[in-house]
Amino acid sequence: MNHNTYSEVWDLDSIFPGGSESEQLQSHLSQLEAQILSFSEMVQSYSTPSSKDDAARTAEIVDEATAIIADMRQASAFVGCLEAQDLSDRQANVLRNKISTLYVKFSTSFNAFQQMLSKTSDDVWKELLKNEHLSELSFVLNEWREQAKDKLSIEEESLIEALSIDGYDGWGEMYHTIVGSMRINVEVDGEEKDLSIGQANNLLSHEDPEVRKEVFHKLEEAWKEKEDLFAKTLNHLAGFRLNVYEKRGWDQILKEPLQYNRMKQETLDAMWGAISKHKEPFVKYLQRKAKLLGEKNMSWHDLNAPVGQLSKKISFTEGAHFILEHFKKFGSDLAAFSQRAFEESWIEAEDRPGKRPGGFCTSFPVSEESRIFMTYSGTMSNVATLAHELGHAFHFHALKSMHLLNRSYAMNVAETASTFAEMIVADAAVKEADSDEEKIALLEDKLQRSVAFFMNIHARFLFETRFYEERKKGIVPAKRLNELMEEAQKEAYAGALGELHPRFWASKLHFYITGVPFYNFPYTFGYLFSLSIYANALESGKGYEEKYKALLRDTAVMKVEDLAMKHLGEDITKESFWEKGINLCIKDVEEFLALTDE
User: Fold this and answer.
1) How do the pLDDT tens digits run along the chain, 598 residues long?
2) Following DSSP, what letter does each residue of 198-211 receive, concatenated?
3) Separation between Cα atoms, residue 69 and residue 73, nearest integer Å
4) What is the pTM of this model?
């Protein structure tokens, strides 16, 4: 048996020693600034290709852009870790602003380069892509070219990038500033505790219903107290985005998120259509859960309440060993990679104040490592979350053999790898349960995730689409935002909830992320898409890992519809594809209902 003990605090010094005061990071940023200046000069001396003889020069500029992108991501990922681990780290905020400024300088030249590629005649473009160096990047280069055609002039796009630092991105940073200043005081196990928002959120799965209720209402009071600040932040962030869309002539709110996720509107419609038709089993699950908790109706603060009985809290090291044991049953590469992550302290999991709420995985392309951030409190749900983030890291690992520009996969397929890893662990936990009570608890944990993807994410999507339509006409006040959120929750949960969470729009970081528009539906896509992959893996056995890695390698060089057809033989613009995954989740509901039937 493996008796290794793993650290709950990550090691960032192996990347840039010294944290936010790191001299190596400062040197890296200075070098990056020089690279960007050199790149700018290269682009200024470049002109729209007119023949195949321009291929070598084009490839040289692509290489330089690739190096800058790698160094930029390395620095940005590091600063992101600093910001998350300590919300009071002011120097990290200074570094973030510096990186944003460098990004804008690079984007100005990079956009100019893309614009020149977009003006290349089709015949010359075909000849350029025959170049050995450029041919392997044909998908990405074609994508650059098409995106540039869809935007404004070089000067106008450069102006947008420059204004976004203190406009668009500034409002996103404002959200973190507000949340970082918030504290929640609650009594837990007879002890008064002063908690960060992330720590308080973890208590919404506490076994004591009075603790859950108190934490929820105190959180709601905190969001209410600052709701005007959050409303202003959200309105200005959305207003900036909408103004950019208007100038570009984009009249569809979902144009950018669909483009970013490399998917069609028909695919998104088919996914939500299938989900909307099959919510009744999940309503029954929520009704049964409310009954088991001794409540007439399910309330928001009880959505993550534990049902059934797990034998004990799971330490971080025990959770790590459980993950590794079951990853090994799927494939040696996934297991070996994950063991390295634990042994080399790539994971920040300590439950302490001052951390950002939530979890993420970020990757460092120069050092070819990843880092995982979460707050671990000893539940099986935490173990599943840890597996989820390791799945993200493994996706990056699987792409290491690819050119850096062929590693930029969209969020929807990013969530595929993470959810796949999470399901390996969640299913294993259910199968190894020592009793019906434990099986109920673990099944319920799985069903919480199904409800999150089919109902919670749906509510976010409905709220955000409706909010953006109203924002086109002017500022949407906090009162109206609360109403829009309640309407979305009633529809998405099919009336299954009694007490709602009207200020969820204020509490959820995802609405304030500027890097990815509509940070919601890709989660549901990834969940259901990964269910099909998982079904194939179960059918194929241990030998499936190589096929799985081949699919992951294609995620950055294909539209999702083509990816599904190539690796799964499925048309994902049809509801029937999505229903297959939903039906697997309904089986979990049926087993849960059978086990809890009185």
Assistant:
1) 456 899 999 999 999 999 999 999 999 999 999 999 999 999 999 999 999 999 999 999 999 999 999 999 999 999 999 999 998 999 999 999 999 899 989 998 998 999 999 999 999 999 999 999 999 999 999 999 998 888 888 888 888 888 888 888 889 889 988 998 899 998 888 888 898 888 888 888 888 899 999 999 999 999 999 999 999 999 999 999 999 999 999 999 999 999 999 999 999 999 999 999 999 999 999 999 999 999 999 999 999 888 877 667 899 999 999 999 999 999 999 999 999 999 999 999 999 888 887 889 999 999 999 999 999 988 888 999 999 999 999 999 999 999 999 999 988 998 889 999 999 999 898 888 888 888 998 899 889 989 999 999 999 999 999 999 999 999 999 999 999 999 999 999 999 999 999 999 999 999 999 888 899 999 999 999 999 898 888 888 778 999 999 999 999 999 999 999 999 999 999 999 999 999 999 999 999 999 998 7
2) HHHHHGGG-S-HHH
3) 6
4) 0.86
Q: Is the separation of the CB atoms in 122 and 128 below 8 Å?
A: no
The contacts of residue 111 (CB under 8 Å, 6+ apart) are 148, 151, 154, 157, 158, 161
Rg over CA atoms, the chain: 24
DSSP for residue 283: H
User: H/E element holding 575?
Assistant: helix 575-595
Go through the domains of the chain in sequence order and give each one's CATH number: 19-166 (1.20.140.70), 226-344+379-598 (1.10.1370.20)
> Distance between alpha carbon 145 and the CA centroid of its chain, in Å?
26
- In the chain, the amino acid numbered 194 is D
Q: Whole-angstrom Cα distance, residue 514 to residue 511?
A: 9
Contact 449, 515 (CB under 8 A): no
- Report whether 78 contacts 364 (CB < 8 A): yes
3-state SS class at 92? helix
* Alpha helical stretches, state H, 89-136: 90-118, 122-128, 132-135
